[in-house]
Amino acid sequence: MHNTLVKWRKENGNIYTIWLFNRPVIVASGYDAIREVLITKSTDFAGRMFNYRLAYFSNFRPEMTFEDYSEKHMHAKKHVMNTLKMYGEGMQKLEDITMDILDDLIEEFDGLGGNAIDPLYYFRKATMNIMASMVRHVLYSII
Fold first, then answer.
1. CA-to-CA distance for 58 and 80, rounded, in angstroms?
2. Could you point out which of 63, 78, 111, 123 has its C-alpha 20 to 30 Å from the C-alpha of 143?
């Protein structure tokens, strides 16, 4: 599978679509492409296919990180942003910490040498590090 994805990357570029079970899946390869998908144009690339493993680990409850970009998602995001604004400079601190951790995450993805991975572990680690950094001023490196 990995060799096929590498071949398609050479033919189609760093961001391309494949179809699984009649649903489009975006494949992003390389630092700049992953940064574009996750940060620069995140709403353009939002939308998630049902993932049984993710549903199992979240006890089949909705998980905002991996749900489709919808009206519900926009309202929840707006609520979180408004709540954080009440803390004044805390919002800027959160944004700075988040951007640093996302840069580390992208570097970590880039350091995997193009190997196929399940990114859920990395997303959860990044989320945990954002929260831990805000609350306890520490970062974790989980192997």
1. 20
2. 63
